[in-house]
């Protein structure tokens, strides 16, 4: 993984949109673009740092591509970039972050920077921030009543509480290093930590 120039794979079935994302990122990233799930699985290997993955595609869905990436044990960060509004099913998915279309250039650049930093965290901290992103997304998209009636959401909150205790030492060491500012942004962006 190269922190300065991340390798980004864009998986988007709308070619014009995929090419727009690539144009936005090409100055700061090594970008490869594919237009369906099968090509994504052919293109992804250990050299890819970040995958920007559409969720709903003909043929292999983004969910299936994501499951395959995780089954292969590839050490890349995955952000779903999709028009699919999040529901509680996202809790079981192994992505690191989730953006709902339309997205801006700034959002894509920020998410890649954030995921690159998270890649340097240990496994527990990576899991913590992936789950925190899911909780923040559901907090934004679902009503209080919907969240309270969801068993998956309750399990998510419980897992986050356990992880919070486990990652305190790692977080403290990051506060003392250069990751301090980004970690604060992650924490501020995720409303889960204080709940």
From TrEMBL:
<dbReference type="InterPro" id="IPR013971">
    <property type="entry name" value="HalX_domain"/>
</dbReference>
<dbReference type="GO" id="GO:0000160">
    <property type="term" value="P:phosphorelay signal transduction system"/>
</dbReference>
<feature type="domain" description="Response regulatory">
    <location>
        <begin position="7"/>
        <end position="116"/>
    </location>
</feature>
<dbReference type="Pfam" id="PF00072">
    <property type="entry name" value="Response_reg"/>
</dbReference>
<protein>
    <submittedName>
        <fullName>Response regulator receiver protein</fullName>
    </submittedName>
</protein>
<keyword id="KW-0597">Phosphoprotein</keyword>
<dbReference type="InterPro" id="IPR050595">
    <property type="entry name" value="Bact_response_regulator"/>
</dbReference>
<dbReference type="InterPro" id="IPR001789">
    <property type="entry name" value="Sig_transdc_resp-reg_receiver"/>
</dbReference>
<dbReference type="InterPro" id="IPR011006">
    <property type="entry name" value="CheY-like_superfamily"/>
</dbReference>
<dbReference type="Pfam" id="PF08663">
    <property type="entry name" value="HalX"/>
</dbReference>
<feature type="modified residue" description="4-aspartylphosphate">
    <location>
        <position position="54"/>
    </location>
</feature>
């Amino acid at each position: 993984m190269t922190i300065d120039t991340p390798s980004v794979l864009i998986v988007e079935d709308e070619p014009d949109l995929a090419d727009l994302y690539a144009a936005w990122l090409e100055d700061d990233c090594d970008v490869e673009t594919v237009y369906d799930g099968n090509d994504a699985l052919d293109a992804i290997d250990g050299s890819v740092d970040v995958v920007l993955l559409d969720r709903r595609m003909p043929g292999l869905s983004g969910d299936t591509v994501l499951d395959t990436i995780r089954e292969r044990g590839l050490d890349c960060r995955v952000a779903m970039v999709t028009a699919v509004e999040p529901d509680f099913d996202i809790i079981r998915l192994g992505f690191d972050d989730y953006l709902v279309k339309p997205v801006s250039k700034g959002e894509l650049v920020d998410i890649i920077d954030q995921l690159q930093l998270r890649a340097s965290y240990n496994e527990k901290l990576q899991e913590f921030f992936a789950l925190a992103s899911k909780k923040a997304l559901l907090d934004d998209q679902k009503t209080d009543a919907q969240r309270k009636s969801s068993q998956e959401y309750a399990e998510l909150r419980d897992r986050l509480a356990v992880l919070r205790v486990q990652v305190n030492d790692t977080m403290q060491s990051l506060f003392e290093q250069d990751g301090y500012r980004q970690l604060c942004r992650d924490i501020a962006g995720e409303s889960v930590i204080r709940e």
